[in-house]
Amino acid sequence: MKLRLAILLLFVLPTLALAAIITAKRQQDRQVAEPAYVERVELAAPATRIGLPQIAGPDDPARPLVVIDPGHGGFDSGARGEDIFEKAITLGLAQTLRDSLVETGNIRVALTRDEDRFISLEERVDIARRLGADLFLSIHADSAGESGEVTGASIYILSEEASSKEAARFAENENRADTIGGVDLSSADDTVDAILFELSQRRSRELAAQFASLIEREGQGILTFHPQPRRSASLVVLRAPDMPSVLYEAGFVSNPEEARELSSPGGQARFAIALTDAIRVFFVRNPPERETASGARDAT
Predict the structure, then answer these.
(1) Could you tell me the domains of the chain?
(2) Given the DSSP bridges, would you call strands 225-233 and 108-111 parallel, antiparallel or unpaired?
(3) Chain-centre distance of CA 234, in angstroms?
(4) What is the pTM (predicted TM-score) of this model?
(5) Using CA atoms, how far apart are residues 153 and 141, in angstroms rounded to an integer?
(6) pLDDT per position as a tens digit, 32-44
(7) Element (H, E) at 114
């Protein structure tokens, strides 16, 4: 009996000792991995909806409203040339065009940004829709990388299929909005939703194509266009279904000569002359409709 007990202890004791060592090691590791305190960090409050910009021009809501969107801004500098950023060129062009339109005395104008700050693509469209814009013009410039010979402006309208590889490169995707013309469609029947969306977007695309054609026409002899200036792509800022939207790519900042032209007072003035004429003709052809006191629609 004593012999059996001695043999049992000989084998059991080392096993128990090894188990105790492993348990102690795991407990030590757990204490290192799990601190005895929890640090709480106060998270920032949810971002509030961006405020609406000031509308310049006549104090008459019956007058047509153009929202001009200078691309990029803030930490998003956009394309870069030798000594200038796209965000600076687009802001300068937008401000010059705004002043030119205000001088006509018949058109109201708002800029999505009037300073060097970042605004998301969705916020830019949201600003225009909340203001009830009759026309949305987004201004950009491009870069051809190391090639400094590519030059000329391009005009983009919305299309689900890009018109070229260059247009596809330039385009981005965005989800469809939940409202069309102020009508909440988030709970509408899918079929009705699709029909209303298609009808609204089709009309906006037709008007956008007309405006793009006017830019090209009024810019002849004033602006330098790309050999194939009319393009289409699924761009985020063009996807609002209830207002005509056009993106004007002013040129290439990678071309030093063109970058200097676009950032010069003379170049910005020429841009403003052509675009002002195009916008004025557009609204002569397509006067905005306003609701009267009786609820009827009236073209002003």
Answers:
(1) 65-287 (3.40.630.40)
(2) unpaired
(3) 12
(4) 0.73
(5) 8
(6) 444 444 444 444 4
(7) none
Residue 115: what are its φ and ψ, rounded to 5°? -155, 180
pLDDT digits 0-9 by tens, 198-228:
556 788 999 999 999 999 999 999 999 999 9
Instruction: Tell the burial category of 203 from Cβ atoms under 10 Å away from its Cβ (0-12, 13-18, 19+).
Output: middle
Q: How many CA atoms lie within 13 A of 23 on its CB side?
A: 6
268 dihedral zone (left: phi>0; alpha: psi -120 to 50; beta): alpha
Helices in the chain by DSSP H: which ranges?
2-33, 86-104, 121-131, 165-170, 190-219, 256-263, 265-285
Residues in the chain: 300
Instruction: Work out the average pLDDT over 220-246.
Output: 91
Could you count the other beta carbons within 10 Å of the beta carbon of residue 163?
16
Helix axes 265-285, 86-104, angle to 10 degrees: 50
Apex 119 CA angle, 231 and 145, nearest 5: 50
